[in-house]
């Protein structure tokens, strides 16, 4: 359906459709029309006009999320449109705003907020090229460095050096852009564009570089910290991080796989875990915690009981939780506030069925996202699952890939899912009867694709027909065999792949050296 546009917005589109005319006429445009013109330019992908609007921005703030979000003139939200051409024009326009030699008293801009940009899987821009979080980090850092060089070499208006603009951004740093970002942060005080990191993600980074850059970004402003792939952060490093750096505003924390492993704990490790829990308790804003693929058996209480604010998101997938851990979660004050819960990788029907359903009941009034991948949910458990999900009327997303369910059981479950009014996304497993007899669960990478694809397509069509007949075309149902879309991984997969190949090569070389020594 076409989104309605106001007459003002239609006029704005007509104005920006001719870049040369718009450039000549900008000086005569009322200041309060700039936001309207910016959204119209972004919609039409008028890169030159976007650049000129930002270069001459007359207002105190420039907030991408608000500018591209739903407005009275045009309700469509464009903040998920990460068109490379448009975003590059924005950022180069910001650089040229500083360099523009117009009178300094005309320059009112104090805050630029780039955090409202959303990276999504499908883009429809004409240039067919997106600019993700990593590339935005790279370009802003490059422009800040270039700006400093230019200001040092050129004869600038004295007022230019007095310009100070805070640029709020979600930084994404890997080995490949580390040097550039580090240099921009080191020279932040001298640069008119001040990088202010609100969210920080690091992948493929040595611990030394991670610790160095985390101190440069001003942790006191940080609201979200993601330490994800190939940052070898273990428990002692995490304790060191929390002891040396204070995160007063941190709301969301993601830790890398294998940060914790209680199977090899000593008395010192027990104390270390307690210290980490206490430090997390000092983060009074923390409401989202992800620590998947760690071994935390019997220790969830040590980490979560010191928290003073109830968690809204908890990811403890593949963490080998036992009954005591689940019992703690059920009885904790977090249970009634969980909006997103991931318990993947736990044999729920076998280990703690009643405790899990009690937890589900506690959070049912607020739960928006539930992930139960590789949980050994079988046909005999479907009726109980439906009973547990029935009160979850706000559920928007349900992911249960990797469970041994038949096509018949999936049809039964989908018939129920149609009744959840807020549901938008379902990720369902390949039916068990599409695999050869004797398939074991959880399936390994070698066998995950060895199913009858034609039969799967027929079942998928039948499941979508169930949605269609219930007038639930708004629900997207899919089977992403190798995990859900991750914008950050998608953008840096070449670097991630190169890192993994190099690590494998180094391991082989060490193994060969060891064999040679033995022989």
Tell me what you see in this structure.
The chain is an alpha/beta fold and 519 residues long. The chain has a domain of 125 residues. It is 42% helix and 10% strand. It contains 20 helices and 13 strands. A 13-stranded parallel β-sheet has the order 1-2-3-4-5-6-7-8-9-10-11-12-13. Helix 18 links the parallel strand 12 and strand 13. Helix 1 packs across helix 3. It is globular and about 75 Å long. The termini are far apart.
Quick structural summary:
The chain contains 20 helices and 13 strands. 42% of the residues lie in helices and 10% in strands.
Q: Could you estimate the helical fraction of the residues in percent?
A: 40-55%
Largest sheet: 13 strands, parallel
Show unreliable segments. none
Q: What average pLDDT do the residues reach? A: 92
Structural class: alpha/beta
Number of strands: 13
Terminal Cα span: 72 Å
- Annotation field: number of helices: 20
Strand arrangement, major sheet: 1-2-3-4-5-6-7-8-9-10-11-12-13
% residues in beta strands = 5-15%
Shape: globular
Which value, in Å, is the CA radius of gyration? 26 Å
Task: List the SSEs and their pairings.
Blueprint: H1 7-16, H2 19-25, H3 34-44, H4 47-55, E1 61-63, H5 64-68, H6 84-99, E2 111-113, H7 133-153, E3 165-173, H8 178-186, E4 193-202, H9 207-216, E5 224-227, H10 235-244, E6 252-254, H11 267-281, E7 288-290, H12 300-304, E8 313-315, H13 323-331, E9 340-342, H14 348-351, H15 353-363, E10 369-371, H16 382-389, E11 397-399, H17 407-417, E12 425-427, H18 453-469, E13 476-478, H19 487-491, H20 493-518
Parallel strand pairs: 1-2, 2-3, 3-4, 4-5, 5-6, 6-7, 7-8, 8-9, 9-10, 10-11, 11-12, 12-13
Helix pairs in contact: 1-3, 2-4, 3-4, 4-6, 6-7, 7-8, 10-11, 13-15, 17-18
